[in-house]
Description:
The protein is of the alpha/beta class. 35% of the residues lie in helices and 20% in strands.
Amino acid sequence: MRSQDYFRDKKVCIVGLARSGFACANLLNSLGARVSVTDNGESGLIRPHAAELRKKGVDVEIGRHSEGFIRGKDIVVISPGIPESALPVRWAKRFKVPLVSEIEIAGLLCPATIIAVTGTNGKTTVTTLIGRVLAALGKKVFVCGNIGNPLSGELDKIGEGDFVCLEVSSFQLERIEAFKPKVAVILNLSRNHLDRYEGMPAYLEAKKRIFMNQDETDYLVLNSQDPVISGLAKEAQSKIVYFLEREGLNPNQAAVLAATSVLGAGEELCLKIFREFKGVEHRLEFVLDTNRVKFINDSKSTTVDSAIWALKNTEGPLILILGGREKGNDYNPVLALVKEKVRGVVLIGEAKEKIRHAFGGLFWIEEASTLEEAVQRAFLLAKPGYSVLLSPMCKSFDMFSDYEERGRVFKQAVHNLALSRKAEL
């Protein structure tokens, strides 16, 4: 942990003004850093965030990136969605300005014990459950990262003796230098983000960074049933704890049991928490039933593997809404399950043509220009006893700021549909 005075008078540029960039800008500005922010977008949260920061004396540009915002800085903080090809990244490298992520800054200042969770699928559920187990032990717990608020936005409430459960992505881990969780969890690894990484080895290298600063006083929790993940033990300096799926315990639950065991939780408490857990928002979230058609919000599903899990765990014949921004997905692994359970598909977003080609003539496929239109079309395709499942298998950034906004829009569209049905009766 660094003293908060460390950033005083440091010249810091933050690239990206969504949630993590905004939180980091506020944090560093409050610590006396000389903060500037650049974002080439202008919609959504960006304009109000920019207006709020300007009131605090922060230099902000939106709708473009200017070289002057990068030159002469001590640090550049890159938001997770910013690619290596972005101008600010190239300028920072040219000017030899260190590039770091928001979790690197927040991690340096965090006085609490950090439990960091990564993997392709299951991060949100596992991070949430670890937080609930620790809370049941009487600990003061903050669950953040890709869930809810960024860690930067919570630091003013966090003290020594507290616990932080942090969901972290490969994008965030790319730009850490000193980030050092007490407990690091790697759940699994499957094909994902290949629009950003050259291949699976590069994707794995990013994930491995979660334990690169750990030592013998820390813990690394690994999936013993995944040979690639379990094989990482030989590269770590930390104590290795394995988790194993067994009867009555799915992989996510097994990971939570292993991670919390090193923090003093027993199996009986964990099993109680699992029984009481109703799931997380946007992950197989039941919305409502109208005209005997159930609507399920699985907007968190941005991979083929997570959609497979959703399809296996959703009852009834299905109408599937999917699509978004393509990220190198291979749709072949889902085809057999789709053929078995799906009776119709409504496609949205940029990946429509690739998905249509992959699914071929398996069933009826329609397209929609908006998610609201997709809900209407899916309802018309559904029969009583069907479920309409939003499980996109793709990123949301072509149409929404993140998967949470996509999920909220879906739920609102479903509620609007139900209201209009009532009005017709």
